[in-house]
Write a structure and sequence with these properties.
With 285 residues, the chain is an alpha/beta fold. It has one domain (3-284): TIM Barrel (Alpha-Beta Barrel), CATH 3.20.20. The chain has helices at 3-7, 27-38, 56-68, 84-96, 123-133, 153-166, 179-191, 208-218, 224-233, 237-257, 271-280; strands at 13-18, 44-47, 72-78, 101-105, 137-142, 170-173, 198-202, 262-265. α7 (179-191) links the parallel β6 (170-173) and β7 (198-202). α5 (123-133) runs parallel beside α6 (153-166). It binds flavin-adenine dinucleotide.
Length: 285
C-alpha cells in the first residue's frame, strides 16, 4: 500500500525504524529484531540505507521481510555515491519485491570523496529520477532545527519546497526533543506553501551516551527537563531507559493531542523499546 494513502486518512499512525547490518554475521539478530517489531503491527516500518550504498542488499531483504510479515515497508535510498544506472537497478529490485514506498535521501559524503566525483548533489535530483521511473510513493527528510549544512533555516525550507515540487509526497523529520520546535517548523513550512504530511520523528533516548552522540552529530536542542533526567539516571541503565521511554511517550501523546497524526519512532533495532512505546500508547491508538 502507498504510504501517502495511510498518512492522509486523518487517523493517528505509529511507525518504527530499523537499520540493516553492515556485515552478514549480525544479520540473524537484526532479522529477529525486525520480526519482533513487525509483530507489534505498526502502520509501517522504515529500513535505512547506507550512504555509500553498502547496505543495499540488506535494506532490500529486510524491507521485503517486513512486507512478508504483513507490515508496509518504507525503504530508504541514498544517492550521494550513486549514479543513475545504479539507482535504476535498485528501483528494479524494489519493484520486483513489491516495495512501493521509498524515502529518497542524499546521504552524507563519505570521507575521502570529493563533491567533484558526484553525480547527485541533492536529494531532489533523486526524487526526480524516482518520479520519472514511476510507481513509487516518495518521501524525503526534513530538519525542524535546520540541516547542519544549510546556510540558514529559510534557504533550507526553500530547498525543501523544491524537493516537494520534484515529487516528494511526504516528509519525515529528523529527531527533535522539544515539540514546540516541530510546531514552529510546520508553521514555517505552511507559510512557504509546503503542505504535504510531515511525519514527526521521535527518538527514545535510553542512555546518556546516546544523547551525547546525538547532540554532537546533529546539534539538537535538548530541553532542561531531559538534561535533568540524564543527570539523575545516567549511571542507572535500567532507570535511564525507563525515563527515556517515558519522555518519548509524553512527546508522542502531546503530538497526537495537538492533532499531529503521524509519528515515527527511531527504535534503533530495539524491540523492547518499541514494545514499551506501543504499550504506553495502548488505548490512544
Ligand atoms: P537534501 O534534501 O539534499 O538536503 C541536504 C542539504 O542540501 C540541505 O542543507 C539543503 O538545504 C541543501 N540543498 C538542497 N537542495 C539544494 C540546492 N538546490 N542548492 C543548494 N543547497 C541545497 N542517511 C543515510 O545515509 N541513510 C539513511 O537511511 C538515512 N535516513 C534518514 C532519515 C531521515 C528521516 C533523516 C532526517 C535523515 C536520514 N539520513 C540518512 C541522513 C541524511 O542522509 C543526511 O542528513 C544528509 O546530510 C541530507 O540528506 P537529505 O536527503 O536531507 O538531503
Amino acid at each position: 500500500m502507498k504510504l501517502i494513502e495511510k498518512l492522509r486518512t486523518g487517523k493517528p499512525t505509529l511507525s518504527f525504524e530499523v537499520f540493516p547490518p553492515k556485515t552478514s554475521d549480525t544479520y540473524g539478530s537484526v532479522l529477529g529484531a525486525v520480526r519482533q517489531i513487525a509483530g507489534l503491527k505498526p502502520n509501517y516500518m522504515s529500513v535505512t540505507y547506507g550512504a555509500a550504498g553498502t547496505t543495499a542488499a540488506y535494506t532490500l531483504e529486510l524491507a521485503s521481510e517486513v512486507a512478508k510479515l504483513g507490515v508496509t515497508p518504507l525503504a530508504h535510498l541514498t544517492c550521494v555515491c550513486a549514479r543513475p544506472d545504479t539507482i535504476v537497478r535498485q528501483l528494479d529490485s524494489f519493484r520486483e519485491k513489491g516495495i512501493e514506498n521509498i524515502l529518497a535521501l542524499r546521504g552524507d559524503l563519505p570521507e575521502g570523496m570529493s563533491r567533484d566525483d558526484l553525480h547527485f548533489h541533492y536529494a531532489s535530483e533523486l526524487v526526480h529520477q524516482i518520479r520519472d521511473y514511476g510507481g513509487f510513493c516518495i518521501g524525503g527528510a526534513c530538519y525542524p532545527e535546520t540541516h547542519p549544512g544549510s546556510e540558514n533555516s529559510r534557504t533550507d525550507i526553500l530547498h525543501l519546497k523544491e524537493k516537494v515540487e520534484a515529487g516528494c509526497e511526504f516528509l519525515t523529520t529528523q529527531m527533535f526533543f522539544d515539540n514546540d520546535i516541530y510546531y514552529n517548523f510546520l508553521w514555517r513550512l505552511l507559510n512557504q506553501g509546503v503542505d504535504v504530511p510531515v511525519v514527526a520523528g521521535i527518538m527514545p533516548v535510553t542512555s546518556a551516551t546516546l544523547i551525547r552522540r546525538i547532540v554532537r552529530i546533529s546539534g539538537n536542542a535538548v530541553p532542561q527537563k531531559f538534561l535533568r533526567i540524564v543527570d539523575r539516571f545516567k549511571d542507572q541503565p535500567e532507570a535511564m531507559k525507563q525515563a527515556g521511554i517515558a519522555f518519548a511517550t509524553e512527546q508522542i501523546i502531546d503530538l497526537y493531542a495537538n492533532g499531529v497524526n503521524a509519528v515515527h519512532v527511531y527504535s534503533m533495532n530495539h524491540p523492547d523499546v518499541a514494545e514499551a512505546i506501543r504499550a504506553n500508547l495502548g488505548s490512544i491508538l
